[in-house]
């Protein structure tokens, strides 16, 4: 009981820390690829701490509420995804809860951004939701193939299943959804070339346009968490999770770096290009995967 | 085109009729057995109704109900005609051309005679050919003559209507009286009298008188309505 | 039980009569009647009375009974009915023919209660029809475009009832009974093809009422044109009468064992139903995204949500059944809530056009919260009841090996998110247009309704065990396996659900975040219009993004989402009309011709005879 | 020839019926149609009478005491015809009065032109 | 026990007396039909229990059946007589208010005679007598259609008269042939002579053809019904109501009586079924796109006739009692509709459906009556139309034949079309027209007068009562069906 509560407290913090580290890493890698030096890894943390002391401007109660919802949702999900062997809420609904709780992040942001009444924010939200729809199609197919392959909706069981035999990514037929997941991972993470939502040049960073001070800090934390969540989900589903936290951390780090490196070279896609990309190859592969899985079963 | 189709259709219908009629050769004695109604009438009518004229017996007693209906139909025609030709305002037509003197005189002369003939015919309906309807028609023809001959003549519609109405009611009342007296509607409950005399055959003459008056009044009404309209 | 029916029907007419005396009396009477119904139905919990209404109607008795299943439906009906009456209070005030409106509302309610209470198909059909035509009069109530909507509704409804009649009587022709319990025992004995035919006829009828694609076309118009309280009833419970019917057919007449058995006939039947249900989820969800009329959005959404219900029920597992039943209840709450919320907005602003609304959050906060809760329920955000039912559905779909259906259902949820947010954004968020600056908040009676329903959505989401226990009883009585239920969800080996964990985690996280937010440096409150516009001046008129909200998406999917069925039905209707116009040219007006018809008939008869003889 | 002669009543009856029907179906003047109606009814009356005829029978009136029932024709059709005639007259009278009215309204009796009621 | 002949004698006597009464006062004359129909109503209803045991055979003139004319007051006859009297009563009360100008006394006389004719037809047991009463019915309806003397009325009357006379002439030919073959006119006697051969010989079949085609004109089955839309739409409202409610039903009765009882011709049953469906479809389709409301109602009558004939042609107990129930419910509902429409047209001055707009406000009770009548016709519970349609469909499905499956599909299709146009009118009456303030309507009420409203509401009560509790009537109709199906019982009952 105590251990569970401790995990509940620890894991979100851990998630935020790792997420922020990823953010820093992301900027560093991008800079390196651009032949720049880039900010220090700790920079996001510094930014956030600084922003917390800036106050900021609020547009109303829902403006605040949306952010709280978003962040709380993100923190809650962490407890449903195993971090190595730690998964405090494994018996509370499994994958499906994760799927639905993941909705809270964009929805909270959207509420908040909508209250801001800035068209740029609205456009950004609209893009965000469309993009989400875009990657959800293959993502759902992927998740469904994994879930039906292992006949469970519990992510812990899936991890256990992989540890018993071989990582899903390297096993037939789950390799297909695994590949598809890799293809859509940048979209799930919202990193290049799928950062249309927050394109600073076009729509003034979209949903973020009205945020300042602590609100922006929250937004950054949410982004950090979403990076962490997306990758740890992949690791759990396809790379067999991990037996101890260190291995797990290494796995997500590797995946993240690989993902960033590969995708950083692409230019930003238009939203329609993004969606049609997502609905083409990843979906086809994921669909094939699901077909094969359901045939194999 | 229409005629052609009509002819073809009618040919088929004619064929059908011919097929039917071939099954009932003309003049055959189709009422040979006693349970046939026609045979029954011929044999029993004089005793049962006291009427020498079997047709009258059939019309008034055996099939008296038909006759009641028939009178009703005529009544409907008279009323209906009056209704259809009813005008909200009687328009004044130009006065009709008076008939020639000869015609006028002839009419005045013949009119009562025709009336008497008519009355005779319906009074003797149970004895001789003829009856209420025929008599009534003759009466009406008298009025027709009068209309043609004496152009200025106008009948009193109210009287005729009253006659119609009374006569019709008399018919029904006679029937009801039969119901009351004999247990069935239009029962010939009165004494039959001496066969083949004027005062015989029970209610037949009474009904025939009613019918005669009624038919006469109705037909006259019809004629008057149409003629007054035509002016 | 007779008291319930008597109250519902008698109350309707009493209300109408009292209305002739005073309109206040009418309102009071309507509320009392509907409130009494709630009490009566609630009192009958866990009782199974049965009664005969008329010992012999057309050679069969009209009987009613109550069991768990019908109680479940009945309670939803009376509650939503009660709330809609309360909501009507101010909504209908000052509109013409309010007496008539109340009469019909109560009558439709009475009809629905009758449907779920009836113990035989004949009674069922009678009440069904009463409900159908009552609904027709209510849909047409708003005039204008409502006339067309009403026409469309009633034509499809009549087609449905005609098909149902045929189905009922086909059953009767073989089994010579209308009574549910007797039919249940015997139906397996008929030849599969015949019972399949009967079942499909009944299913078609119910599918029309339940707006299963491709029989859905009446619904968008009807829902959007009906008066708001009735839209809530219509969407929340009336179309679910089709669900009730489907349950009767599939679970009682056919029997769930037979229905999900791998018999060739029934497997095909179930497959067709499942495919239709998933299409019903998928396509309308995205059509809803493209609508610009608030109630149209909700209407299409009703179709899609009905699809979830059907999917659950036709899937046939205990969990699927539970999902369908629970989703029915949830849909009754959150969709009624949404319709009431939008109704309140419409009542205040006199428009439903999404593009011209906006920013009403400031003016109608309670309504906003209600709609937010409703939308969350619709989407299935955890801690709302919609989540639990969808969770059940997905779980059973995945575990019983139908991942494609689960996929479609999940994608449908994404459509739900898109239009749900669109609804919230366009009505309540964004900039407040000048002309709505003085909009007042919703009247108290409306707010009461909204609050009650919002609470229901949340409470059922946190404590799903209450209804699930009931549903479990029903499922067991239908001959299905029992579920392992606790008050906070499901405890089972293949994946449990525990809402209290989710609740506590979310609440804790929320509180922490909130504290951090409040603890850090205080923010300044600025007006909504004080926006960043990249240095440009903010336009005075409107500075928001609403028209064609999901424009890129529209461009991609619009051409696939034409309502071809609607067009097809209109085409058929046009053909029928043209043909009947041709038919009536038979009566040419020329009497000679008519005489020829008579002769033709006669000679045809004669010819047939002659011909036959010649042969 | 003898066939024609023997069945002359039937032939006349059927002929009148067909002619009457033809007129009613094919002619366009209302008066002609009414005349056709009259033909038709007359034909039917003849048919009725002919149906009741018994070869060699006399009128069914016992005007002399020695008349025998066996030698008389069937009285029933005669009674029926009486009724039928009266009905015919009634219809005819009504038809004529309607024709008068119709002419007032339309100024014509051409039935092909009086077609306001159709479809 | 009252003698059933009074059902005919009393109204006839009253009709004859009416012109006399009119001399005293027109006002009294107006009440004569009411009195007559009230009498008939009471008598026929009081006779129902006794005829259920065994039919009452009434001799006229005191002669036993094959020789004298007899009335057969069986369940069917008395039931229909009761319906006629009931509807006749309602419509005659309505006529008190509606018939204001023109030859009112003549109208009332003819009206009473029309109903007497109808009663006579259903009661008589003699085929020629039937013909006579049929003519009474027809001729008075010819005249009444032209009652108002307007352009359409006269035109319709002429057309009706021409077709009707052809029909009755053909029927008379059939009767003549029958007489020529059998030498008798009593229906039971003819039936006994025909026996139970099953297949009729050519002569009999052609006689039957003539009679079906002849009486079919009044029954308004498909190719013979061209007079109906004209006459029903042009007659004054009460006459339309009676024509639709009573006259065509009597026609159907005659056809059915002849086919079933007199000929017992199974070969005709199928024909009836097919004709019924065709009539139904044509009627409903023609009504579908009508703009003239009365004409639409008239076509709808055609459709209903089709349904009834279809049901009767099934020749099963269920089918026949369903058909008879439909006769009753249609008589009630359609006359209600015509009555309601009468005043709506009177108020709006036009027969276009579009002119009905706002009627729900102007004449709420009339409109309510109209709506319920329409719902009943469509067959919605809890109105009288429902049990009828239900029984018919049940009987048809119970046949379990592919042909009937197909036909019943067509019938149901017709029902759908019917629902379409009726609902359209209901919408037009209630939900179109200028929107009004809730209280403004009270001043603009132009409700029909009490005498017109009372019969409508009376019919309404019957419609609802029949719809809610049809069982007694159905039981009655079952014995009617038995009477039609067991022609040997009929023969035995009449001839002993």
What does this structure look like?
- The complex is a heteropentamer of chains A (297), B (231), C (615), D (119) and E (496).
- Chain B is mainly alpha-helical.
- Chain B contains 8 helices and no strands.
- Helices cover 68% and strands 0% of the residues of chain B.
- The longest helix of chain B is centred in the C-terminal third of the chain and has 27 residues, at 204-230.
- The radius of gyration of chain B is 22 Å and the shape is globular.
- The N and C termini of chain C lie far apart (66 Å).
- Chain C has 3 domains: 1-159 and 217-240, no CATH class; 279-490, no CATH class; 564-614, no CATH class.
- Chain C is built from 24 helices and 6 strands.
- By secondary structure, chain C is an all-alpha fold.
- The model of chain C has no long low-confidence stretch (mean pLDDT 84).
- Helix content of chain D is 66%, strand content 0%.
- Chain D contains 4 helices and no strands.
- Chain E is mainly alpha-helical and 496 residues long.
- Chain E has one domain.
- Chain E has helices at residues 6-24, 26-53, 75-98, 104-123, 127-145, 151-182, 187-194, 202-219, 227-234, 237-263, 266-288, 293-313, 317-348, 359-362, 364-378, 385-398, 402-431, 450-468, 471-485, 487-495, and strands at 56-59, 70-73.
- In chain E, strands 1-2 form a two-stranded antiparallel ribbon.
- Chain E is globular and about 65 Å long.
- Chains in contact: A-C, B-C, B-D, B-E, C-D, C-E, D-E.
- At the A-C interface, strand 1, helix 3, helix 4, helix 5 and helix 6 of A face helix 16, helix 17, helix 18, strand 5 and helix 21 of C.
The ordered H/E elements of chain E are: HHEEHHHHHHHHHHHHHHHHHH
Number of helices of chain E: 20
- Beta-strand percent range of chain A: under 5%
* Backbone shape of chain E: globular
Q: Low-confidence runs of chain A (pLDDT<50, min 5 residues)?
A: none
- Average pLDDT of chain A, to the nearest integer? 80
Strand order of the largest sheet of chain E: 1-2
Which percent band covers the strand fraction of chain E?
under 5%
Into how many domains do the coordinates of chain A divide?
A: 1
Question: What descriptive keywords fit this protein?
Answer:
heteropentamer, C: 615 residues, mainly alpha, three-stranded antiparallel beta sheet, two-stranded antiparallel sheet, 24 helices, 6 strands, D: 119 residues, Helix Hairpins, 4 helices, 66% helix, 0% strand
């Amino acid at each position: 009981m105590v251990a569970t509560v401790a995990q509940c407290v620890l894991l979100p913090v851990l998630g935020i820390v790792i997420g922020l580290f990823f953010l820093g890493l992301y900027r560093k890698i991008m800079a390196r690829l651009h032949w720049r030096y880039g900010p220090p890894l700790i920079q996001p943390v510094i930014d956030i701490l600084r922003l917390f002391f800036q106050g900021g401007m609020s547009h109303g109660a829902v403006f605040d509420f949306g952010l709280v919802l978003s962040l709380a949702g993100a923190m809650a999900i962490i407890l449903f995804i195993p971090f190595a062997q730690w998964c405090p809420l494994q018996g509370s609904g499994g994958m499906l809860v994760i799927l639905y709780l993941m909705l809270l992040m964009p929805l909270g942001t959207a509420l908040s951004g909508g209250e801001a009444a800035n068209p740029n924010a609205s456009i950004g939200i609209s893009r965000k939701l469309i993009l989400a729809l875009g990657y959800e199609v293959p993502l759902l197919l992927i998740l469904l193939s994994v879930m039906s392959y292992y006949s469970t909706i519990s992510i812990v069981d899936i991890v256990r299943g992989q540890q018993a035999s071989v990582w899903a990514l390297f096993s037939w037929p789950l390799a297909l959804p695994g590949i598809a997941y890799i293809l859509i991972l940048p979209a799930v993470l919202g990193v290049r070339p799928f950062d249309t939502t927050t394109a600073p040049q076009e729509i003034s960073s979209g949903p973020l346009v009205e945020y300042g001070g602590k609100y922006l800090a929250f937004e950054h934390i949410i982004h950090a968490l979403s990076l962490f969540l997306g990758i740890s989900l992949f690791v759990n589903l396809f790379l067999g999770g991990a037996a101890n936290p260190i291995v797990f951390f290494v796995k997500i780090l590797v995946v993240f770096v690989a993902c960033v490196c590969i995708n950083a070279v692409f230019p930003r896609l238009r939203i329609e290009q993004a969606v049609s990309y997502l609905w083409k190859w990843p979906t086809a592969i994921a669909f094939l995967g699901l077909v094969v899985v359901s045939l194999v079963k | 085109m229409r005629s052609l189709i009509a002819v073809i259709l009618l040919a088929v219908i004619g064929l059908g009729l011919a097929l039917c009629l071939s099954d009932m050769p003309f003049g055959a004695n189709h009422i040979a057995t006693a349970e046939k109604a026609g045979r029954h009438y011929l044999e029993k009518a004089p005793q049962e109704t006291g009427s020498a004229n079997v047709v009258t017996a059939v019309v008034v007693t055996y099939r008296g109900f038909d006759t009641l209906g028939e009178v009703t139909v005529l009544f409907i025609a008279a009323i209906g005609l009056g209704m259809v030709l009813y005008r909200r305002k009687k328009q004044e037509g130009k006065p009709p051309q008076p008939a020639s003197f000869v015609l006028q005189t002839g009419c005045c002369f013949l009119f009562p005679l025709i009336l008497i003939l008519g009355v005779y015919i319906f009074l003797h309906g149970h004895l001789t050919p003829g009856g209420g309807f025929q008599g009534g028609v003759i009466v009406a023809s008298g009025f027709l003559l009068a209309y043609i001959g004496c152009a200025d003549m106008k009948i009193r519609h109210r009287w005729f209507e009253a006659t119609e109405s009374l006569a019709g009611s008399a018919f029904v009342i006679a029937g009801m009286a039969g119901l009351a007296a004999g247990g069935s509607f239009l029962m010939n409950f009165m004494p039959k009298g001496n066969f083949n005399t004027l005062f015989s055959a029970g209610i037949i003459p009474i009904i025939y008188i009613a019918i005669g008056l009624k038919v006469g009044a109705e037909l006259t009404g019809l004629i008057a309505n149409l003629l007054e309209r035509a002016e | 039980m007779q008291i319930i029916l008597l109250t519902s029907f008698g109350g309707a007419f009493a209300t109408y009569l009292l209305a002739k005396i005073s309109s206040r009396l009418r309102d009071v009477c309507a509320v009392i009647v509907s409130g009494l119904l709630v009490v009566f139905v609630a009192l009958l919990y866990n009782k199974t009375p049965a009664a005969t209404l008329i010992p012999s109607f057309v050679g069969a008795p009209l009987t009613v009974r109550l069991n768990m299943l019908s109680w479940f439906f009945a309670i939803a009906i009376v509650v939503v009915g009660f709330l809609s009456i309360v909501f009507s209070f101010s909504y209908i005030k000052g509109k013409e023919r309010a007496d008539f409106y109340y009469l019909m509302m109560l009558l439709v309610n009475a009809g629905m209660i009758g449907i779920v209470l009836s113990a035989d198909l004949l009674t069922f059909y009678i009440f069904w029809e009463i409900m159908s035509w009552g609904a027709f009069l209510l849909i047409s109530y708003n005039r204008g475009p409502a006339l067309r909507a009403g026409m469309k509704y009633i034509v499809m409804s009549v087609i449905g009832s005609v098909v149902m009649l045929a189905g009922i009587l086909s059953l009767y022709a073989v089994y010579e009974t209308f009574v549910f319990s007797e039919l249940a025992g015997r139906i397996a004995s008929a030849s599969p093809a015949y019972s399949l035919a009967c079942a499909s006829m009944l299913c078609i009828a119910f599918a029309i009422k339940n707006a299963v694609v491709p029989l859905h076309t009446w619904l968008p118009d009807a829902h959007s044109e009906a008066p708001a309280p009735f839209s809530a009833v219509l969407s929340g419970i009336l179309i679910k009468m089709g669900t009730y019917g489907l349950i009767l057919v599939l679970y009682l007449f056919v029997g769930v064992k037979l229905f999900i058995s791998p018999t060739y006939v029934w497997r095909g039947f179930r497959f067709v139903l499942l495919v239709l249900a998933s299409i019903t989820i998928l396509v309308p969800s995205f059509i809803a995204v493209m609508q610009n009329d608030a109630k149209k959005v909700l209407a299409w959404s009703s179709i899609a949500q009905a699809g979830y219900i059907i999917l659950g029920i036709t899937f046939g597992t205990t969990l699927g059944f539970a999902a369908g039943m629970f989703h029915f209840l949830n849909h009754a709450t959150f969709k009624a809530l949404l319709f009431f919320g939008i109704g309140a907005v419409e009542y205040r602003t006199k428009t439903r056009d999404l593009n011209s609304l906006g920013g009403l959050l400031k003016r109608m906060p309670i309504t906003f919260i209600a709609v937010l809760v409703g939308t969350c329920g619709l989407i299935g955000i955890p801690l709302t009841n919609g989540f639990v039912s969808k969770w059940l559905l997905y779980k059973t779909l995945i575990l019983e090996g139908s991942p494609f259906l689960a996929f479609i259902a999940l994608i449908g949820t994404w459509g739900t998110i898109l239009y749900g947010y669109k609804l919230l954004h366009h009505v309540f968020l964004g900039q407040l247009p000048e002309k709505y600056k003085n909009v007042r908040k919703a009247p108290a009676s409306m707010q009461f309704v909204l609050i009650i329903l919002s609470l229901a959505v949340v409470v059922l989401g946190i404590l799903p065990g209450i209804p699930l226990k009931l549903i479990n009883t029903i499922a067991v009585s239908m001959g299905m396996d029992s579920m392992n239920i606790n008050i906070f969800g499901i405890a089972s080996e293949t994946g449990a659900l525990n809402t209290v964990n989710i609740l506590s985690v979310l609440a804790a996280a929320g509180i922490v975040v909130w504290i951090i937010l409040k603890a850090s440096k205080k923010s300044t409150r600025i007006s909504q219009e004080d926006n960043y516009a990249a240095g440009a001046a903010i336009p005075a008129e409107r500075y928001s993004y609403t028209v064609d909200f999901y424009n890129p998406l529209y461009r991609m999917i619009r051409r696939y989402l034409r309502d071809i069925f609607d067009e097809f039905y209109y085409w058929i209707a046009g053909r029928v009309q043209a043909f009947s116009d041709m038919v009536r040219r038979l009566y040419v007006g020329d009497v000679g011709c008519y005489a020829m018809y008579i002769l033709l008939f006669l000679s045809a008869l004669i010819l047939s005879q002659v011909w036959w003889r010649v042969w | 020839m003898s066939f024609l002669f023997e069945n002359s009543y039937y032939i006349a009856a059927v002929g009148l019926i067909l002619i009457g029907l033809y007129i009613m179906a094919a002619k366009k003047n209302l008066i002609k149609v009414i005349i056709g109606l009259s033909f038709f009814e007359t034909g039917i009356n003849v048919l009725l009478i002919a149906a009741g005829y018994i070869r060699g029978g006399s009128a069914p009136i016992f005007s002399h005491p020695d008349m025998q029932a066996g030698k008389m024709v069937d009285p029933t059709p005669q009674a029926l015809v009486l009724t039928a005639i009266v009905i015919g007259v009634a219809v005819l009278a009504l038809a004529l009065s309607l024709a008068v009215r119709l002419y007032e309204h339309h100024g014509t009796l051409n039935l092909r032109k009086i077609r306001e009621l159709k479809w | 026990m009252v003698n059933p002949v009074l059902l005919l004698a009393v109204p006839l006597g009253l009709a004859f007396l009416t012109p006399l009464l009119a001399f005293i006062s027109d006002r009294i004359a107006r009440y004569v039909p009411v009195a007559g129909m009230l009498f008939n109503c009471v008598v026929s209803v009081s006779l129902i229990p006794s005829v259920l045991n065994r039919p009452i055979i009434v001799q006229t003139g005191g002669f036993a059946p094959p020789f004298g004319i007899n009335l057969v007051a069986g369940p069917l006859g008395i039931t229909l007589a009761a319906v006629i009297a009931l509807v006749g009563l309602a419509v005659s009360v309505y006529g008190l208010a509606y018939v204001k100008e023109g030859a009112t006394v003549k109208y009332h006389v003819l009206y009473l005679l029309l109903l007497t004719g109808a009663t006579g037809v259903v009661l008589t047991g003699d085929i020629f007598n039937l013909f006579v009463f049929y003519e009474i019915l027809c001729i008075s309806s010819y005249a009444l259609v032209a009652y108002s003397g307007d352009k359409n009325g006269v035109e319709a009357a002429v057309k009706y008269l021409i077709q009707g006379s052809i029909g009755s002439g053909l029927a008379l030919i059939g009767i003549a042939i029958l007489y020529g073959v059998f030498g008798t006119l009593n229906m039971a006697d003819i039936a006994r002579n025909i026996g139970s051969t099953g297949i009729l010989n050519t002569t009999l079949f052609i006689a039957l053809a003539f009679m079906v085609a002849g009486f079919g004109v009044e029954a308004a089955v498909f190719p013979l019904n061209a007079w109906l839309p004209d006459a029903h739409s042009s007659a004054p409202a009460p006459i339309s109501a009676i024509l639709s409610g009573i006259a065509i039903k009597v026609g159907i009765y005659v056809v059915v009586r002849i086919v079933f009882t007199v000929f017992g011709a199974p070969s005709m049953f199928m024909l009836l079924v097919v004709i019924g469906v065709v009539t139904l479809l044509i009627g409903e389709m023609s009504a579908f796109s009508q703009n003239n409301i009365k004409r639409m109602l008239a076509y709808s009558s055609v459709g209903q006739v089709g349904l009834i004939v279809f049901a009767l042609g099934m020749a099963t107990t269920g089918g026949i009692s369903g058909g008879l129930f439909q006769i009753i419910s249609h008589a009630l509902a359609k006359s209600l509709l015509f009555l309601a429409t009468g005043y709506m047209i009177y108020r709006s001055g036009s027969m276009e459906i579009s002119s009905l707009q706002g009627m729900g406000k102007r004449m709420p009770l009339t409109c309510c009556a109209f709506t319920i009548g329409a719902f009943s016709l469509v067959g919605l519970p809890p109105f009288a139309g429902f049990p009828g349609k239900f029984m018919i469909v049940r009987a048809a499905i119970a046949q379990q034949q592919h042909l009937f499956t197909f036909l019943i599909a067509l019938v149901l299709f017709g029902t759908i079309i019917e629902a379409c146009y009726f609902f359209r009118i209901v919408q037009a009456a209630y939900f179109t027209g200028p929107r009004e303030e809730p209280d403004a309507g009270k001043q603009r009420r132009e409700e029909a007068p009490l005498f017109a409203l009372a019969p409508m509401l009376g019919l309404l009560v019957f419609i609802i009562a029949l719809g809610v509790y049809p069982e007694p009537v159905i039981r009655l109709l079952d014995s009617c069906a038995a009477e039609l199906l067991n022609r040997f019982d009929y023969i035995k009952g009449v001839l002993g």
